[in-house]
Task: structure prediction
Amino acid sequence: MDSISYYLQTALNGILAGCIYALFAMGLTLIYGVLNFVNFAHGELIMWGAYFLFLFMGEPFGLPLYAAIPPALALTGCLGVAMDFSVFRPLRWANRLTLLIAAMGLSVFLRNAAQFFWGAEVRTYGLEVSAGTRFFGLYLTMPQMAIILVTLLCVGAVYLLFFRSRLGKSMRALSDNLDLARISGIDTKRAILAAWVISAVLAAIGGILLALDTNLSPEMGIINLIKAFAATLIGGVGNLWGALLGGLLIGLAENLGVLFISPGYKDGIAFVIMVIILLARPYVIVGERSD
Amino acid sequence: MDLLLHLAVVVAIYSIFALSLNVEIGYTGLFNFGHVAFFAIGAYTSALLTLSGAPFAVGLLAGLAAAGVCGYLLSIPALKLQGDYFGIATLGFGEILRMVVSNEVWLTKGPMGLPGIPRPEILGFIFDTLPAYLALSACMALTTFAILAFVVLSPFGRALKAVRDDETAAEILGKNALRFKIKSFVIGSTFAGLAGVLWAHYTTFISPGDFTLTETILVLLIVVMGGKGTLPGPVLGAVALIFFQESVRFLRLPPEWTRLLGPLQQMVFGLLLVVLMVFRPEGIIRERGGRHGD
Result:
């Protein structure tokens, strides 16, 4: 392979990774926007989404991939709602430290619950590995094509939901000002519930895509949480399109960065970018939220 | 008997670790989720120096200094962040540090770890028995307790609490909040380094696997369960949780259970954190005059 197509292939891999980070970051930033806290357990939604699919594809269900995805997404959505009902709703007006430690505890609990049931080992869905298809000298496998298509679909769906529906409007209102939204007669409970479902389903979709392309392990959530967070910081916290852009940038930077530094540090690139952004200014590319 | 002595040594080391986190999280309200990084820096610095022939005292002081300096360097970008963001930045730092330790094989031997770390030797006396090591770590824990008690009860400590409770008000009263936070973070990091040094010379073997997020969670749980923002809280938490954790390890269980025991124990810890936060966020010992549940 000549060097130009090698760089292009690396950039493509970066975009693929970036699509997945964008899905994680959009869910994280959505909950931040509506409830004003960083959900430390967001990574566990990513991981459980992937494991729910593993559950439905294995014994005793034995469903094929396409049939196992809907129940896996539905269950992750339920898990998101359950998190809110059991932990975050009772703490809605608690101080930040309390909320954050609770989220941390929840994350530890869920991560180890997955390890308890499925073990710490790295797993795959056991699908047949298909050879990549060649496009203009670049290789793309089936799961990778799915990553691009599904991300585009998700972004379209999020756009329609947030900017073209009543529910989306109420979520944006909450994100601007919770108290004001409530006294304006917006059904805040419904909007918060919807935010959790969307955040969890986006996490699950991203987790499943990642697991299809690579593999699954109980640690996959926490690693990606840091990247999703770096992506939201780049984009301006609470900003959906910023999260999308930030995710793509992190993916590109990671994959292109490995051309210059040891691959052992790949997972650290997002953190370094985060520090650089912080040293410069907390919100860069898309701009600050109005509050 | 040996088991009890072992437990006492671990309690002493974790008390230091927890007391150091308490300065940050309890007294200053800094959400440090990467505290284990400074424990690791202390452990690796002292281990590497003593393995290459330096005396224990040098390793100890270098370990403290390295942890403190790294704390200072991290605090400059990280303290630009408030609350949750600071939490994620420190969490990321913890992961990065483990990555460095795993990858810089020329220095740290990477995942193979450092075996044969010498027992401490001070003025010709070698602390190579359990009672001797207990005496050493108990002395260190008492010294730490005394120093940190002095710090948090002083006007400086009251200023930290003021910054925690209302940063704007503290600024208006002429306190430079950022400077207080940096000092608090450096103090916390330095004493975490001390705990790390003691840990390395106690187990005599360290590897990157000893310094994961799990350790941060344990020490966080120790602090919030015992009572953050109080002096005896972290010690009480350390006694309770270390006894729980280490005694489980000595139960004679069938081997097929032990694989499940680790995750199960972590599930209990995670659940404890959640339940505490929902029902008693102040922990066992309540901070006097502090603000709660607001």
